[in-house]
Amino acid sequence: MARHDLVIRRRTSIAQRLPDTYQEKLLAFKKHVLKLRKTHNYTMGAIGNVDKTPVFFEMPGESTVNKAGEKTVHVRTAGGEMQRCTVMLGITADGNKLPPFVIFKRKTLPKEKLPPGILVRVQEKGWMTEELYLDWLKSVWFRRPGALLRQRSMLVVDSFRSHLTENVKVKMRQEKSDMVVIPGGMTGMLQPLDVSINRPFKSHLRRFYRDWRCGSTEMTPTGRLKKPSLSQMCEWIVAAWNTIPEEMVSKSFKVTSISNAMDGTEDDAVWLTSPDSETSSESDIDSNESSDEQ
Predict the structure, then answer these.
(1) I want to staple 92 with a disulfide (CB 3.0 to 4.6 A). Which of 58, 96, 198, 277 is the partner?
(2) Per the domain annotation, does 160 fall within a domain?
């Protein structure tokens, strides 16, 4: 590669030519956001984005160090690679991070003491439902800093069905909050959390898990390694969320053309490198993980 002046390049979507239908969706989305902002003159703290992402209880890496030549490489886990919870993350264009909203797959709330700064709910399948989304709106979005002033706000969401029910629309109208829906298939370009935040968030989670697994020797009565507890998972989620800098959060709205200056002076922000490019260097993180499989 050096002899032929070749380098490894990462695939991107923003620099590639989009199909005409996607370009039309992109342009329509930007026009709609700009129209709402000019009409209601939102403050940066009243422009938000919410997204759900799965978090697995065990996050072993895809690679490890082993002796050369061995055909089988063992990675020790407690067998909980498929056990997960759903984490609802919310941010605002002024850089504020809203408390994580975690949904565990169980019927009753955990009795163990949980860390502050996180909201925990349960659901039999660990999925986001209309009821839980209304709970998130009431407990997080309508209680964010400045929300009690009852100023008009704008929330950017993806097209997941629980976000678009009639009950949700009624609640949003009652609270003077405008809902902007990202066109299907374009969350990778237009959703701030998906573009810039989810990847470094999971990178930090994976690091906390690795540090814990390296130092944990606790075993179950049957001789298996112990899985992380619910309280331990919550501590990692809070710590990983606190690690995300405010500058990255506010910049994520600019690279998705949501909070750019309305006079056009920041239109080139969409070409800036994504804020997570330096933070998320781990290649084994799937940045497109989503619980939309529900």
Answers:
(1) 96
(2) yes
Side chain identity, residue 81: E
CA–CA dist 262, 264 (Å, integer): 5
**Spacing of C-alpha 150 from chain mean position:** 26
Place of tokens 């331990």: 232
Distance between CA 279 and CA 294 in Å, rounded? 29
> For the domain that residue 24 is a member of, what is the CATH number?
3.30.420.10
Query: Between 166-174 and 130-139, two packed helices, what is the crossing angle to 10 degrees?
Result: 10
Gap between the Cα atoms of 88 and 99, Å rounded: 9
CA distance 286 to 202: 9
Which residue type is seen at 165? T
Q: Residue 110 and residue 112: Cα distance in Å, rounded?
A: 6
Whether the Cβ atoms of residue 248 and residue 197 lie closer than 8 Å to each other: yes
pLDDT digits (tens, 9 = 90+) for 125-165: 888 999 999 999 999 999 999 888 889 999 999 999 999 99
User: In the numeric block, which tokens belong to residue 216?
Assistant: 């944990």
Strands (E) in the chain, as ranges, are 47-56, 84-92, 101-105, 119-123, 153-157, 177-181
The pair of structure tokens assigned to 107 is 């019927």
How many domains does one find in the chain? 1
**Does the residue 277 lie in any domain?**
no
Q: Which amino acid is at 122?
A: V
Q: Which residues of 28-48 are buried (b: 16+ CB within 10 A; e: fewer)?
A: ebbeebeebbeeeebeebbbb
Output b/e per residue, 232-256; b: 16+ Cβ within 10 A: bbbbbbbebbeebeeebbbbbbbbb
For residue 167, report the phi and psi dihedrals to the nearest 5 degrees.
Answer: -65, -40
